[in-house]
Design goal:
Layout lengths: L3 E4 L2 E3 L5 E7 L8 E7 L6 E7 L4 E3 L7 E6 L4 E6 L8 E9 L2 E4 L3 E5 L2
Parallel strand pairs: 2-11
Antiparallel strand pairs: 1-3, 3-8, 4-5, 4-9, 5-6, 7-8, 9-10, 9-11
């Protein structure tokens, strides 16, 4: 089991950058995968990025080349660096930990891209 707390969301202009953080309540080095999802009101959540315990990463096509997921095991924290943001990136972003085929969700952080 793990508790997750996201931070770093906010309002940013198109073309800008934000870095989201996800602080975990336990050591994350052995967690199967750490993920970032995003959800727009009225729509299903979408996987944005994933990093495995071995360090492998994957990205949704819509964010490839703009977003970077990373993890700092010493700080029990996962990051999502988001560059060249567009209004289409506006959503609530959730950190999700997958442990033994069970997903644990944080409370989410709002990202709004608007001029």
């Amino acid at each position: 089991q793990v508790q997750l707390a996201e931070s770093g969301g906010g309002l940013v202009q198109p073309g800008g950058s934000l870095r989201l953080s996800c602080a975990a309540s336990r050591n994350i080095s052995s967690i199967n995968s750490m993920n970032w999802y995003r959800q727009v009101v009225g729509k299903q959540g979408v996987l944005v990025a994933r990093i495995t315990s071995g360090g492998a990463t994957m990205y949704a096509d819509s964010v490839k080349g703009r977003f970077t997921i990373s993890r700092d095991n010493a700080k029990n924290t996962v990051y999502l660096q988001m560059n060249r943001l567009s209004p289409e990136d506006t959503a609530v972003y959730y950190c999700v930990a997958t442990i033994s085929f069970r997903d644990y969700w944080g409370q989410g952080t709002q990202v709004t891209v608007s001029s």
